[in-house]
Design a protein that fits this description.
The chain has 168 residues and is mostly helical. Helix content is 68%, strand content 4%. It has helices at residues 2-8, 15-18, 24-50, 61-92, 112-147, 151-155, 158-161; strands at 96-98, 102-104. The N and C termini lie far apart (39 Å).
Length: 168
């Protein structure tokens, strides 16, 4: 949901438009949502290291490979999208700016041309993550509605799946 919201508020156009004072609110909102994605991605990876993973549902070899590839790309993008934005903005000479007037300046010297290139890669990666997430969601629905193999259930939290207990 946060990735989708960050995408919707993605500031587009030339640098003068992206950083125009009239568009401050949208950009601050975008950077706040996008940075929250980064923080949650870090938390998710840490959680994944300690939490028990659901048992895999039996599936053909190509399906297992495809699922692993899509998951790997999604994790990669969850880090690459915010990190290219942060690096690009700092190299262009802009501080990160969040809702509530919080700003974080660059810890290194600007290199504008490189920053602009990285910022445009960020836009491409931002579009890509939506495509990959959409593909992933479509595959999950296919498993649920057509194959009826319980794959979607392995993506949901256990508490949502356990039937409510009756009181005696
Ligand atoms: C998952 C999180 C994010 C997504 C999905 C995302 C998506 C996008 C997209 C699609 C664009 C291009 C919009 C267009 O060209 O119409 C964009 C631009 C931009 N984003 Fe993000 N973004 C994310 C995180 C961040 C973060 C964390 C920051 C900064 C801290 C940020 C700062 C920017 C800036 C400054 C631009 C304009 C780049 C330029 O100069 O061309 N974004 N973003």
């Amino acid at each position: 949901m946060l990735v989708l919201a960050a995408f919707i508020y993605g500031p587009g156009g030339p640098e003068s438009r992206v950083y125009a004072p009239a568009r401050d609110f949208d950009r601050h909102l975008h950077e706040t949502l996008g940075s929250a994605v980064f923080v949650l991605a870090v938390a998710r990876v840490l959680w994944r290291m300690v939490a028990r993973r659901p048992d895999p549902v039996p599936a053909s070899r190509w399906m297992r490979l495809a699922a692993a590839a899509v998951q790997g790309v999604l994790y990669l993008l969850l880090f690459a999208v915010p990190l290219t934005a942060i690096l690009g903005a700092w190299l262009e000479g802009h501080p990160l700016a969040y809702l509530g007037d919080l700003e974080i300046g660059a810890p290194f010297a600007a290199s504008h041309e490189l920053g602009a290139r990285i910022a445009s890669i960020h836009g491409w990666l931002g579009d890509s993550i939506l495509w990959v997430a959409g593909l992933h969601a479509a595959a999950a629905l296919y498993h649920h509605l057509v194959l009826k193999d319980g794959v979607l259930a392995t993506m949901l939290p256990a508490w949502l799946l356990s039937a409510p207990r009756r009181r005696r």
